[in-house]
Amino acid sequence: MFSLASGSAHSSGCSVDTLPVFAGLKPEAGTFVPRHIGPSADDVASMLATVGAPSLDALMRETLPEAIRATKPMGIGPGWSEVDVLAHLRTLASQNEVMTSLIGQGYYGTVLPAVIQRNILENPAWYTAYTPYQPEISQGRLEALLNFQTMITELTGLDIANASLLDEATAAAEAMAMAHRVAKSKATAFFVDAECHPQTLAVLKTRAEPLGIALVVGCPQTDLVAADVFGALFQYPGTTGTVADPRTAIDALHAAGAIAVMAADPLALTVLASPGELGADIAIGSTQRFGVPMGFGGPHAAYMAVRDAWKRNLPGRLVGVSVDSQGRPAYRLALQTREQHIRREKATSNICTAQVLLAVIAGMYAVYHGPDGLAAIAKRVHGLTTALAAGLKALGVTVETEHFFDTLTVQVGAGAADILARARSAGINLRNAGHGRLGISLDETTTPATIVAVWGAFCTEQSRVEAMAKTLAPAPSALPASLVRQSAFLTQPVFRSCQSETDMLRYLRRLADKDLALDRTMIPLGSCTMKLNATVEMLPITWPGFCDMHPFAPIEQTKGYQALFADLEQWLCAISGYDAVSFQPNSGAQGEYAGLLAISAYHRANGQTNRTVCLIPASAHGTNPASAQMAGMKVVVVKCDAGGNIDLEDMRAKVATHAQDLSAVMITYPSTHGVFEESMREICDLVHQAGGQVYVDGANMNAQVGLARPADYGGDVSHFNLHKTFCIPHGGGGPGMGPIGVRAHLKPFLPGNPAAEGTAQGTTLAVSAAPYGSASILPISWAYIRLMGDDGLQRATEVAILNANYIVSRLAGAYPVLYRGAKGRVAHECILDLRPIKDSVGVTVDDMAKRLVDYGFHAPTVSFPVAGTFMIEPTESEGKAELDRFCDAMLAMREEVRAIEAGKLTAEHSALRHAPHTGSMVTATDWHYAYTRQEASFPPGVNPSRKYWPTVSRIDNAHGDRNLVCSCPDIAEWME
Ligand SMILES: *Cc1c(COP(=O)(O)O)cnc(C)c1O
């Protein structure tokens, strides 16, 4: 076999097929496909026999309605070898020019400690984990998130922080929406400090409009009329670098019953008085500079912290401490009722996937450096900035910023372009703030040489700069004396216990060992598509050419990224049938929101402002109604029939009722019930005839790629969860990417980003802080599609569907399968009904989920979309042996239930009720259970040499919610 290992030969993303000279010497096309797809050809044959289908193709014909089938190949070409894909990505990375970016504006250079890079970011034990809905197998990442929350409450001086939000700008929008809900003031305007980052302002505008909130942008000292607003946002330090004291403004807001929000830089907070001390009610910001590379905009973890009074209004996930059945402390997600799938149309936020992996990294950065280390970094950065300012002043440059932390704004008038150009030729990007003003932000990576180079951009007299370099030294502090931080922070033991690399390494390993991720077992979570995140796909994300790019770098420096986006857009269009893609939304839910905004803008452009009703079937994912709500739409729920399908009669009736004001219908396809509804085309036609638009929730693309295209059967817009179908790992609950595909008529309404030159796509304002969302993880999806090619992608879909039907064949005799398609098949997932078991013997769906842990499995999706059920999605990546291991465990559990049915013991006395069993439980001297220790920990099929031991037993959620503790114990409690 020959391998064409040269990347440059196909640098424009064209297929190697087009290279005439090498025809016949193609790389080993498709060699990755059998690595990605679990079942071998023999396994597929035997599984087809089990499900009773003559061939994969025949199974597909029994599963997908003929009316929606794609009629031609996608045209992506053959799959490439891993070697070729890496070579090509290396070329793309090299086409990005990595400069020293001193642009600031919310994004800074940072040093990711190698021990964290290797053992978290590059470690599948962390990045392939799922959102910790099953806390007993998630204690490691829950502890890491608790560290993050504690770090945030300590730095901000507020009482309670969530476990991350998507980015600083959307966090600001969430804070505004929250302030609107909780403020005593009945005003309808929100004040935004002119010192806020422009991308934050852009996202606030987007969010404010459908909510009917008016924004007032101005200077807090002169323009804020507290009585006229329900809240205000201050940036601290401001986007120009200035550090202003917000206390007078905050007092005025409070006197008027309004809420004060501060967007604060966590590194600055180590040396500046905290938002809590200044009286702020809410603090938000980005933790990017705590070790997370800029990544051309993301992913990074944003944070939100609030006063105790509003803990129940906090959007996003919150980790809390509770106790397990043995009375030991244990972590779990607190206040689960805030989860959006329960709030549905009453939801106030659509946040689902957040930024867990990045929050874990930022939290560990704080653990590793400790409070003294963080303060030392901050002081060094500040010292360098004072030196920079002094030098610039000595050179006669007008430095506008008097009080600053790490950022200066200078006024250079007509000389700006020359200075920018000189800086660039020295490898440095400065911020062009317009009107002759330049911004310079220093960071952890800045060296004295960087400062000398910046001086050189302002002064062509080489000898003068050289002379100044010799005396480069910090000038006196430029922090306002009244705002210098006096309070201690990060006093908890965890922030003092891992300052050697040995300790850190072992701490990370210890936490990872507590968790079940894809590196140990299948995670059969329906709707979440926990498939292989191949190592080769992950390698490029830490290459400097991708991860060290500033999101607002001049466009000519980002050619590699632009080429990657162009390929990916073309492929996603080929896969979906759409005409254009926006990469801005950084989660599926943000994609929904962006898509619905596009639909609204389209109706408005057609003069149909009355079209505000959004029809959503009862089976929809909770983010659908939440996003519709946020987009200013009125949600009308459409019923489902007994077969789980959208009730066509009800749909017809509601379309007719709302014909005049129908904006959109949101349909998940195949449905969250795991079936391809026959009526999909008919529903789309119906909605179009009434003048509405069709939003197809693309979370289930893993059941369609290569077989059906949403745009062909009626979709106008869809989001693609790249962290589901397209192999971006879930990271324990983020990052993700939710780009949207649209048909041509919606293209003008895709999100733009006024903060980035040359990238504005459409007329709709920004939905994310960065123009391309979490750009640095897009190489993962690029690699996946390029490795698989047309045939591999289609085969993946077919095997995903085969695997689900195989599970149905093996388990349907033991558990009723709730919904099936017209010919008795399920799509890529299936729902098992456990309610009859609950009704007959009292064993709950939770008992079953927890008992699966004893068998070494992560539970399927519990009680979504139907309460009391398991939704199982095996994906194509799981081989037959693993599927059998899972089915055997499910069948063995059914036998445990049968013993209760036969009256041998009660549910209360069964292993099901007391699961999961920890090592300390089964080795305790006293054993008072009605089953043996052996039965507890080694139920049938569990190989003792592969045993997974949970570290906590069943967690008491109610206890944790009654006694809410959401940060690490402090030193005093520790010493008790
Ligand atoms: C996962 C999912 C979403 C939300 O995606 P996030 O990336 O978590 O915001 C929406 N709809 C369906 C059907 C999903 O499965």
UniProtKB/TrEMBL annotation:
Annotated EC: 1.4.4.2
SUPFAM superfamilies per record: PLP-dependent transferases
Cofactor: pyridoxal 5'-phosphate
Location of the Glycine cleavage system P-protein N-terminal domain: 35-457, 494-752
GO cellular component: cytosol; glycine cleavage complex
PANTHER family, alphabetized: GLYCINE DEHYDROGENASE (DECARBOXYLATING), MITOCHONDRIAL, GLYCINE DEHYDROGENASE, DECARBOXYLATING
Known role: The glycine cleavage system catalyzes the degradation of glycine. The P protein binds the alpha-amino group of glycine through its pyridoxal phosphate cofactor; CO(2) is released and the remaining methylamine moiety is then transferred to the lipoamide cofactor of the H protein.
Name of the molecule in the record: Glycine dehydrogenase (decarboxylating)
Organism name: Acetobacter orientalis
Chain's gene name: gcvP
